[in-house]
Every structure is written in structure tokens, then in C-alpha cells.
Amino acid sequence: MIPYARQSIDQADIDAVVAVLQSDWLTQGPTIERFEQAMAARCEAGHGVAVCNATAALHIACLAAGLGPGDLLWTTPNTFLASANCGRYCGADVDFVDIDPHTWNMDARALADKLEAAERMGRLPKVVVAVAFSGQSCDMRAMAQLAQRYGFVLIEDAAHAVGAYYAGRPVGCGEFAAMTIFSFHPVKIITSAEGGMVMTNNPQLANRLRRLRSHGMTRDPAQMTEPSQSFWYYQQIELGFNYRITDLQAALGLSQLDKLDGFLARRQQLAARYDRLLADLPVTLPQAQDQAQSSWHLYVVRLQSNRIRRSRAAVFEALREAGVGVNVHYIPVHLQPYYRDLGFAAGDFPEAERYYAEAISLPMFPALDDKQQEYVVEQLRQLVLEHVES
Ligand SMILES: Cc1ncc(COP(=O)(O)O)c(C=O)c1O
To answer: 9, 134, 168, 237: least CB-packed within 10 angstroms?
Structure first.
């Protein structure tokens, strides 16, 4: 089976992890800080706060943004559960903004309309989580303007978008979002097995994120409510978590970061090849967002259901039978039973639902070779052309 995604691990990665295993620090050691600094330098960000996964990163980013019970968080329905669940962890209510039918990201115009209506009702969101779906940023310039106008905190969920660019600058630089979060899960652009990071330019936010990642405690006398008693002394200032990443994971992440440009170049090449090889099929290809340069975490196509007689499920299953490990990103979050129980229903976000009915993620990872990619395309070609409406 050709998987839809797969990590690329080499000897340098293995050596980096083994070196940490042989060192004094398996966790809470110096490699974490090196990883944070290297990511911050790469992203042109002031601070990076590494945590055990991107879900934890989203949770503490929301807390640092001041999100709490009675507040509102908005995100896109076309995302992984974590982009919405982070609001629920904080006791906030969650709502969604429908997607742009071309980029499949949250639609900035729909966001503007919904904000206008929310202002009239006196129910504006405190946080908006803009997801860089498949590695491509949203219309962040427009969203940042809306954040200014309506006073919400814009968090970019860039779990897919390590190494991507927007408006000529690295995603994570903080020009548009107050905080950007990354994931280092093995299917993502670089991996630390499990791992995540929050990038920000705001030192107060960075301090708060560091405290929340480790029990809400501090050893910094400047943050204490009374003078430090001695070297052993720490204080718990607020309720935090153990969301720490290990030095073993950070070593893998750091070693992977050395190879980021090579990974991105191959992903971009594969995307361009898919664009060319699929151009004559009744499938809709990914469309570029103005100013965005994707990291190509995913390569998604939409089967044009008005031209192909086979259902998406039938094409999906036939591809898997042919050894092509396709996947679907994403089941609209508002249709999950948990969110339905909160009052959402089919029809609430029609663009995301139409998209979901047609979407298939084709294999996309740096080690996918040209022959494998041609095989994927050939299988898809046969399946959709056999059943095309004349
Ligand atoms: C858009 C998005 N946000 C957040 C996450 C959560 O990442 P993690 O698995 O590192 O917690 C994912 C994971 O797939 C994701 O795709």
C-alpha cells in the first residue's frame, strides 16, 4: 500500500535521538530550547514554546488569549477536531465559519459577514482559529484586519504549514496572527513523533504559554507573589498542565528541521506533477490562495460529482484495493456526534459539506517517487474515466 503520508527518517535523525539518550537530559533539558530557537529563527518569530502535541499547543494558546467559560471561539468546519476542541477545553462555546469553495479554507468574506451579524447581536468571538488547510494560509491579511476591527485574537492553526509562506514571510512570523501553532506528528511536514509548538512575538504571551505547559508554576522571582525563599522555591500561579515535550522528541524535530527545505521542494514538485498529470480528468484540483505558498502537507482533489457516476466512497474503496492509500480530510467538524449534541446539524455549513462529499487526499510525502505517483494517477484515471458522464 502506498500510504497517503509518511515520515522520512534518516541516520542523522537516529543519531540525534541516540545522542540525547546518552546524555544527562531526557526531558526538560537544553535540546528543547535549541529546537524552540531554531524554529523561531526559521519562522522569523520572537518566541517558540514547544509542547507535547499541537492539540496542547492550541489549548494553551486559547488560554493565553484569555478564552474562558461564556466566551466564543470560531473556526472552520474543514479541519481536524482539535481546532474546535481547544475552545471546549477552555469552557468556551464553539461556532464555525463556512469555507471558500476554491481554497477550502475559512472564507474571509463569510467571516466578515458573520462578525457583522454577531456584533449586532452582541455576541462576538474572543478567538478565531484560522486553519492553514493542507499547508496553505487563509486570507490572513483580511482576517488580521477583522481581528483589529472586532477585537478578537487571531490564532493560526498551521499544524499543516511548517515551512509555508504568506505575503513573502514565513508562516509563524506573527505579522498577522497573535499566535501560530505547528504540529510535528509523523504525517506532517517535519516530525518529532508527537510534538507541537506555539510561535509568538509577544513576550508576555510566551511567558504565560511556558507556565501553562508546566503546571502553571514558575521559578522566576519576577512572576512570584512574594519573594523567592531560595533556589528550590517555585510557585504555582495558576492551573496549568504537563504538556511538556521531551528532549528526545526535540532532538528529532531539530534534526528534521535541517531537512525542511528538501522536504518542501519535493512536496512542491509532487504537487506540480499532480496538477499536470490530473489536468484532463473530471476532478477539481487545489486552487492557490493569493499571497500563499503552501507547504503541501496534503494534495486533495474533488471528484466532480456531476460528471462522475461513481460515488466518492466507491472511488475511495477501489483505490485502496489497488494499493493506493487515499484518505479524506476532513469530515466537517460540526457533523460529529459531539457537536451535533451541541446543536449543529447537516446544512449548517453547506460549502464544507459539499466539499466533504467530493474530497479525496492523494498520497503526498517526500519519499513518494515518480513511478508511485504515476501509478496513483493511472488508477484514479481509470476509475473516473470508466464512469464519466458523456
Ligand atoms: C489542522 C490540525 N490542527 C491540529 C492538529 C492536532 O495536532 P496533534 O496531532 O499534533 O495534536 C491536527 C492534527 O492532525 C491538525 O490537522
So the answer is: 168
